[in-house]
Amino acid sequence: MPFTPYHFGPSGFIGLVFRKWLDIPVFMLANVIVDIEVLYWDKWPRHRYVHTLLIGAAAGILWGVAAYPLRRLFKKIMQFFRLPYHTTFLKMLISGVLGIWFHLLIDAFYHWDVRLFWPSRIIPLYGLISKQQVEAICLACFIPAFIVYAIIVLSSIQKNKSKSLRGA
Ligand SMILES: [Zn+2]
C-alpha cells in the first residue's frame, strides 16, 4: 500500500501503546519510508528488497541512524501533539527496524509479491484474509489509536494541573 493512510492507523496505535519502548516518530515514519521502494520500481514486482524481513531490518537500522540527528525536530513535533518524548539511539534503531517489520507484516497479507522470508519464496500470509478485510482492520485501528492518544493527552493535562496546584 504505497503512501496510503492505511498504515497510520495500526502504526499509530502500536506506537502509542508501546511508547515506553518505541520512538513514535521513528516507528511511524519507518512505515512510510519503506514504500519509497514501491515508487522506485515502475514494474511489478514492486515489493522487492526492502519488503523482506532481512533487508528491511538493515533499512530500519539505517533509518534509525539517519533519524538520530532529527531527534530535536521529533521532540518539537511530539510537543505539538502534546505527547511526551524521551528517546535514545538504541530506541531509535529498534523503532526503525520494528516500524519497517510492522509495515511488512501488513503488506504481506495484501500484496502477492511481498516475500517476507526472502531468500525463501514462501508467502504464507498472502490471501489469508481478503484485501477488504485488511483495509477495514487498518481503518478500524484509527479508533483505538485516537482513544489511546486522547487518554495520554488528558492525563498529561491532569498531571500538569495537579503539579501547578501543588506549586501554588
Ligand atoms: Zn509497503
Topology summary:
Elements: H1 8-17, H2 24-33, H3 36-40, H4 53-67, H5 71-80, H6 89-110, H7 131-140, H8 142-167
Bound molecules: zinc ion.
Residues 1, 34-35, 38, 51, 103, 107 line the site of zinc ion.
Q: Can you walk me through this structure?
A:
- This protein has helices at residues 8-17, 24-33, 36-40, 53-67, 71-80, 89-110, 131-140, 142-167.
- With 168 residues, the chain is mainly α.
- Helices cover 64% and strands 0% of the residues.
- Helix 2 packs across helix 6 (89-110) and helix 4 (53-67) runs antiparallel to helix 6 (89-110).
- It has one domain.
- The longest helix is centred in the C-terminal third of the chain and has 26 residues, at 142-167.
- The chain is globular.
- The structure holds zinc ion (ZN).
- Give the overall form: globular
State the helical fraction.
55-70%
Sheet-strand content, in percent, reads under 5%
DSSP strand count: 0
| Biggest pleated sheet | none
Number of helices: 8
Give the total of domains: 1
Question: How do the SSEs run, as a string of H and E?
Answer: HHHHHHHH
